[in-house]
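Students often ask why we bother encoding 3D structure as a string. The short answer is that it lets us treat folding as translation between two languages. Here is a chain of 151 residues written in the first language.
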Amino acid sequence: MIRIAAVATILTLALAGAGAARADLAKVRAETRPVQRARMAMDNANDQLGRASKSYKEGGLAAARAALDEVLGSVELAKQSLDQTGRNPRDFGEYKNLELKTRALLKKLEALVESMLFQEREELKPLIDTLHKIHDDTLMAIMEGRKKGKK
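And here it is in the second language, the structure alphabet:
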């Protein structure tokens, strides 16, 4: 009986956290200024990774999954928002900010993965690969800048 109550409590907390996460990302998407939206999205990604870590410790990977999906959605939104500005990544410091914050997120995520069961680690490989790609693409955009002839 106690186990059923504990499982019900964990599920309730996970669902409440997922609802709050969706509300946070909806608030970020509602921001009309792309640079501010990108900053808010990265802050949300960092918060969600903290929630995912806490949820994993309390209820396993299933409990953390919604927050981890939110991390990816937030980072993708931040990159899209900066791309919408049309500014040259080489001359626009917000891209460097995105690169640094994405690298920090990857380090935290890899620490979380190290604490997981071996079988669960493979489930997060696509998430990690996508975040690495966004990081690498951002870094390359900063290093290369805009191609000549494009405005």
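Translate back mentally: Confidence is low (pLDDT under 50) at residues 1-21. Keep this in mind for the problem set.
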